[in-house]
Amino acid sequence: MSILRSDRNPIIKPEDIKPSRPDFRVIGVFNCGVTRFHKEVLLLMRVAEMPVNPNPKKILVPEMDIETKELNVIEFDKSDPSVDYSDPRVLKTSKGKFLTSVSHLHAARSKNGIEFNIDDKPAMLPENEYEKLGIEDPRITYIDDRYYVNYNAISDITGVSVCLASTKDFKEFTRYGVIFMPDNKDASIFPEKIKDKYYALSRPISPEFGEKDIWLSDSSDITAWGNHRLLMEAREGYWDSAWIGGGAAPFKTKEGWVEIYHGVSSDERYCLGAVLLDKDEPWKIIARSEKPIIEPEAPYELRGFFGNVVFTCGALFEEGVVKIYYGAADTYIAYAEIKLEEIYKQMK
Q: Facing residues of 152 across strands?
């Protein structure tokens, strides 16, 4: 398959982002929503930060105080046998689980889609009990003169849920709260009504059986969702054998709705593929990628905070080309493009 990665990759790196406070450092900028805004490409990026730690014998983790809306820093001793630091993303302790970093959403803008001017301040910060451990992985859908942003909200109180906000300028946001209950993530909203209904994809997680598949839901008002149904599952023996999840907001073509999604293999290798859904009945699958359209191959995709990962929350479909902005190794933002006809060729 002919995929064109930018020779400027990674196009945005952690050192390009100013921390939200002086005692924190940015460890990753990745998993961005994307849209066209005022003739520019706008990215709403996930920025992950962690406390600056001067003591190598300690582990510092951030946690938001719900009352003060301020981030606290909690300290653990690395020699404590009850502390499990085997996953660099999650700290397991006798007091519960903590994320080693906290994420917020930050905007960047570009006229050519490659060179970005990054806003000085975050666009959205965690601010309530559902977002206590951070907000992550935004997707952007433009509907009726508003930009709807759905994102993952992380909390040790309520788990992982999907929240919704909207904006007209990416400076002021109206929050609507939780739209998909825990544990759920990887939601994306279709950009127009289909037979008087809005549709959205999401990825609920079964606590009993551990299944992670993509579901479809509908709504009459974008905020209240129901009629949930299983859309597609992981496939044994394929590149997406362990679990799957939604990626960019679906885009419409002559053949139907195209969704760029991520799939994970048993060795936790994250790749991107595509599924084609019926234009009028999006619960019907027409075709699906036999092989990944993007898989981790470049050094910046193979090595980072969590390597062997390509993961998208945003793509533009323009003049027959799918322009994909993706997170690489949970550390960087990279760019690649591929003609839609190339994606169709490897679908079945």
A: 136, 162
Give the three-state DSSP class for 268.
coil
- 188-203: b (≥16 Cβ within 10 Å) or e: bbbbeebeeebbbbbb
Those residues whose C-beta lies under 8 Å from the C-beta of residue 273, and which sit 6 or more positions away, are 239, 240, 260, 261, 262, 263, 288, 289, 291, 292, 293
Architecture of the domain made up of 4-345: 5 Propeller (2.115)
CA distance 106 to 125: 9
Pairing of strands 332-339, 214-219: unpaired
pLDDT tens per residue, range 239-261: 999 999 999 999 999 999 999 99
How large is the C-alpha radius of gyration of the chain?
A: 19
User: What separation, in Å, do the N-terminal and C-terminal C-alpha atoms of the chain show?
Assistant: 15
Q: Annotate 155-209 with DSSP letters as a single string.
A: ETTTEEEEEEEEESSSSSEEEEEEEEPSSEEEEEE-SS-BTTBEEEEEEEB-TTT
**281-334 pLDDT, tens digit each:** 999 999 999 999 999 999 999 999 999 999 999 999 999 999 999 999 999 999
pTM of the model: 0.95
Domain boundaries, the chain: 4-345
Q: Which of 180, 204, 188 is nearest to 143 (CA)?
A: 188
Give the tens place of pLDDT for each residue, 52-67: 999 999 999 998 888 8
Cβ proximity of 100 and 75 under 8 Å: no
